[in-house]
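INFO  loader      accepted 1 record
INFO  loader      residues=198
INFO  predictor   begin
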Amino acid sequence: MKVLYKILVFVVLFAGVASCKSTQEVIVKQEKKDKILPIQKKYGNILGVAPEKVKNIPLYKFIDSWMGTPYRMGGETRKGIDCSFFTQFLYHDVYGGLIERTAEKQYMAPDTDKFIGQEFLKQGDLLFFNLQGSQHHPITHVGVYLGHGQFVHSTSKRSNMGGNGVQISNFNDNHWQKLFVAAGRKPIKTDDTIDEEN
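INFO  predictor   done
INFO  writer      dumping tokens
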């Protein structure tokens, strides 16, 4: 009888401890979920998505540090930067890769996996443009796809806010769709920090 009593007490205590442990795990998971960073809120708002879907924090910190830098052809500093140096610098700092210096060379590089189907776009893909929207003309502009129909680039085109330079634009806008030639995927490190589309 004493043995049965001890077993019963042990089972009750074990169940209580297990219950507390699972409750603690739920609380910790909830705290992590609730810990939304200011940069996630900011870019969630810009992209029109829930802040928790903005996962690639290094990418958005990089963008934030350059946002509003004016466009300058051949520029490589915070006084002015052109499209291809911005993408080259972004790839180096965010993805740890070295890509070509000009938009045309980034497009023509053997390791650029080019495709036209916009439904296959992923965060980090390069977007290539020219005035004709044609593969038969040199590439004159490049940006980086962020997901949710948005991309970041340094452009001479003025935004709705009135300035040019580093900005996030709507890839679905008629202007960019007319100039779009192809997307390109580089062999970069990817993990679970890629933002969710849905």
